[in-house]
Amino acid sequence: MVSKENPTMPSNRPRNTDGRIARGERTRDAIVDAHTELLREGVLKPTAKVIAERAGISLRTVWLNFNDLEALLRATTAYWLEADAELRRDVDPALPLTQRIEQYIAQRVRRLEHIAPAARSAALGEPFSAALQASRRAHVERSLSDLRLAFAPEIEAARSEGDVLVRSLFLATSWPSWTQLRDDFGLGVAAATKVVRQSMTALLET
Question: How far is Cα 200 from Cα 90, in angstroms, rounded to an integer?
C-alpha cells in the first residue's frame, strides 16, 4: 500500500506499539522520507546536514538513528525497492503478444520514471557502496523475473537462445537504455516509449 498523500511513498511500514520504539521508528522514517524527497528534487548527493534540516531534526539525531552512511543507504534503497514493488503487476503470459508488450511497457515506463531520481543518485555512489550495489542487483533480478514471466512462451520457443532473448529484452527496457533515450537523446516519455516498444516487438516477433 502507498500513502494517499504521496502515491509513491509506501505507507505499510511496520509499527511498534512501544512508545519509545515507535518514536524512534517515526524518526528513522522521517530521515528516509527527507532523503528520498531531496533525491526527487534533483539533489543527488544530499549531505547528512541537508537531510537533517529537511527532516526537521538535528544532525546528531541522524547519526543516532543510522550508524553510518551505509546504514542510511540501506534504509533508503529498501524504500525505493518497496515503492517499485507497489507499481509492479504480473503480465499474464496467456495474453496475445501485442497485449503483453503493451502491458509490460506501460508499467515498465512508470517504474523507470519513478526510479529515475534514485538511479541517478546511485550512479554517483554505487562503486563505493555495498548497499547501492545490492539494490542494483535486486532491481536487475526483479526485471529479469518479470520478463521471464510475461514472455515465457517466446522464451521457451527460443530454446537454446532463450537466455539471449531475455538479456536482449532486459537491455531494451533497462534503466541505462531509458536514461539514454530520455537524457542523451532528449526524448519525451511518449517518444522514448515508442523506441522501447519497437525494440521489444522486433525481438519477440523474430
Answer: 17
